[in-house]
Amino acid sequence: MELNVLNKKGKKLSKIKVDNSIFGLTPNKDAVHRAVLSEMANSRQGTHSTKSRGMVRGGGKKPWKQKGRGVARAGTNRSPIWRGGGTVFGPEPHKYEYNLPKKIKRLARKSVLSQKIKDKKLVVIDDFDIKEIKTKYICQFLQELKIDGKILFLSSDIDENLFLSLRNIPNVALLKAISASTYDLLDCDFILIDKKGLELLNEGLAVK
Q: Which CATH number is 2-28+101-205 given?
């Protein structure tokens, strides 16, 4: 499979050959679903916590005598049925990790990339190099390409000028091509990737 390589003004410069088994396969929705679930679950901190009856401070004294008052007996004012008492079966810190085999993770990323190419939502740019930090330049660049919405820049390396130029633009993100997750690739309207980044992605996902 060959993809067009454009310059910063949206004009075709050349073509680049990529592996058809990565960018031209039939998307596997189940793999994508499982990969997104895994990534979202692994991103959860799991630090939520509540105090049980034994953890709440105070309540050592019996509120009133056992018999003779005509009310229910009580041994502590930190009982779960009292205001200020402990919590019964409340959330405790734990992990939400949901790990997947590497082959499934790789298949999910291939599926999303293949779907993006099929929908013409992936654009290959010759390079992202810019000489100065200028947000206006990035805005003009996107206008030349005639794309809008949520845009993900995938670069072979994070260039400081590029990062500083696009960090204040809404719905625009920058990531290393080889480290973009399934959720990152899925959660955008357009993917802009430089030629070197595409080559790295092609090599990285081709590993069996």
A: 3.40.1370.10
